[in-house]
Records
---
Amino acid sequence: MRVRPAAVAGQFYPADPVALAASVNALLAAAPAGGGRPTAVIAPHAGYPYSGAVAGAAYARLAACRGEVRRVVVLGPAHYVRLSGMAVPRVDVFATPLGPVAVDLEARRTALDLPAVVVSDRPHAPKHAIETQLPFLLHALGPRITLLPVLVGATPPAAVVELLAALLTGPQTVAVLSTDLSHYLDRDRARLRDTRTAEAILARDAAAIRPDDACGHHPLRGLLRYAADRTLDVELLRLATSADTGADPRRVVGYGAFALIA
């Protein structure tokens, strides 16, 4: 069995299982629950001390699907390896301090039938965007879920739509889009930028998302095109910046949590 080891445990979130479980439980408990069943959520992927409360807002909404959702398609940006199109991993399991998460083999086969998707472990090995979602997924949906991790490089929205359409075929599957918003503006400018980005997301306006609005702008544009094609409702759950947790207000990162509901 091929295993992708945790790459950022102890950096972005606690490596100790007890401490990690307590952190995720607290973040989920502090978030409002209720609302419609999401087809997809958008969540940030920074270190938990900075973006964990925003991520918790997204996963508290997903927690209502526990027992129904069996497979999660997680899309994130390829930060460290230049990638044209989308990459799914060759490994069978993603390791976490809370236990393994199995890669969904059927979903991977379906994805690899698409021309924009390749199989490669290289872009996944160092990447935090998907890994940071896994402890939340395990707590929100349970340890029996399976995962299709998809890193998205320079990819037209239509290709992301094709992937989502092939995989989101029933209530047992949901999508998570992992992205942060603005990067390294001062707090006031970041809030203005992120408010504009949130308005575009709520309007399902893929064309309004610019590269400097979100590190995951490629998958985000695709998800918004998918939402517009299917007239999904979009709900803003929480919007914040790293300065809200005490980070330097002169150079912040923005975070947003959203739910997309059929």
Note: The chain has seven helices and twelve strands.
---
Amino acid sequence: MTLDTPALKVRALRKSFPDPEGGRVEVLHVEDLVLERGRTLAVLGESGSGKTTLLHVVAGILPADGGSVEIVGRPMSGLGETARDRLRAEHIGYLFQTFNLLPHLTALENVTLGMTFRPRAGESPRERARDALDRVGLSDRLAYRPPQLSVGQQQRVAIARALAGRPALVLADEPTANLDAVRAQESLDLLLTFAEECGAAVLAVTHDDRALVRFQDRLTLGEPA
């Protein structure tokens, strides 16, 4: 693996789910996608077009039915659950729409927990988490738990958690959906700037027209072939 290796490469990717009549409905078909490090790509499409499914398959949360996914040149497709979890932990940061913070842990503990799955020689997970929270402007909220934080602050903790491990690829599901216009732009600024500093590619699902202009490339799912 080198820095020239794409963060993400997808070929002939398909995913389907069972329907009530015993058949299967294909919800995702991506023929060809390459995302270089440092590039940003917005994923668009109508409801049910497979946008979040694409993120889940790329992250190895869901297995693909066909085709291939490579993360920094390493195959995600065909791996067992444990191996998929390890590859995701090493190279992917995931920003969930609902943040997925653990309510009983502090901001620092939430970010540190993500670091325990990405060990790096000579670096303390807790210090890396502290640095990431400082980077998103929350150095004075380290001991606060999610219920004590505003929605915008929770989003910042989630951004810090996604990027503290310096991943090659960041997946973001509707990163501005739960925020007002001002907070949405602030959070998007943090996400994209932090990712750029890490040299990470960003693959984001969004319906926000204001966010779209910030992305270099677009992929629309569900369009006729």
Note: The CA atoms of residues 100 and 158 lie 8 Å apart.
---
Amino acid sequence: MIIPDITNPFFPSVVRGAEDASRQRGYTIILCNSDNRISKELDYLEILRAKGVDGILLILSPEGRTHKTVDALRQLRIPIVCLDRTPERECADSVVVENAGGAFRAVNHLLGLGHRKIAILTGPLNLINAKERLKGYRRALAKWSVSIPSSFVQEGEFDIASGRQLGQLLITLRPRPTAVFSCNNLMTLGLVKAIRDAKLRCPDDIAVVSFDDLPWWETLHPSISAVAQPVYRMGVEGATLLVDRIEGKRKGAFVQRSLPTKLIVRESSNSKYSEGSSSGTNEDRRRS
């Protein structure tokens, strides 16, 4: 199993699900960390092939959707399941979540509270999950006929430093966003830090919704609203699908499974916001 970043709390939960499901079927996992680098990802694919593994669970690095990885996967000639992120060309089974739908619900929630100046912190847009979350954001804005300046869409890395840096940038904008949809857990931590550094209040000055729930979101002040992913289940589904391929119980065309997400509303977005004439109309109340 190859993952991009062992320090991101999202990925160990996926690994745990995969490990539990694999052991129940009599298999063990060799874990590799690519550090979000395609060079390490390709090296590990070759190493695992040389060691004669039965199959591979792969969470792609940001550059891993490219033809280099696709070609490498096709040359392995063993079962492969991609988790969370899919290659740009179909070459393996995959288990993902409904990224666009989860993002849509998060932003629709903010719009229903009266926000019209909603920014987004995206991850690298060469990742399919980052693209899909941006798509869901735009779809929610379109539903409410809300337009935003291009500066409200900020692309960064899925890490704390990027969330803090981009959060600081958003805070300096005029007009300033009244809400931010942050597209992963680490970016959200950085964003919350930027808001506190600026002596602003969340959600009164800037509301926040995160894509990714964490066990400690409830313990923060304010607690963080989030789109929860079935992370452990993703690992279980991926490992089960892979072992079925290994044992010949599933044959034929590649399959893609999409798992549901759930919006959990907490304090960071749980207050009614008013932007004067732009919110609180009868039409808005009907929509919310």
Note: Confidence is low (pLDDT under 50) at residues 276-288.
